[in-house]
Amino acid sequence: MQITESAAQRLRSSVLDEINEEGKCYRIAMSEEGADLVIDEHREDDIAFEYEGTLVLVLDVIAAEAVGDMILDYDDEKSELLFCKEEDYESIEEIDTSEGEED
Fold it and tell me: Rounded mean pLDDT of 44-73?
């Protein structure tokens, strides 16, 4: 999975302004309906996405397998996060990721 800079910026501002709780971030969790975005904490063996020094998103191996090579993007016009296929993008700016590391 990849995440665009615009999605990372939106997640970071939401983590800092809306969640505003030490150690909390967003998690991609799988449900019967698909992928859900929930507030949670980083766990051992999670794949973690940080942006500008803030942990913004985590997902476990099951969620990572489910989303596969999808790209998480943010649509400014609709004010929503969405998954897209890689071929829909000309270029993706990668952000820092770490697997299984706690900050």
Answer: 93
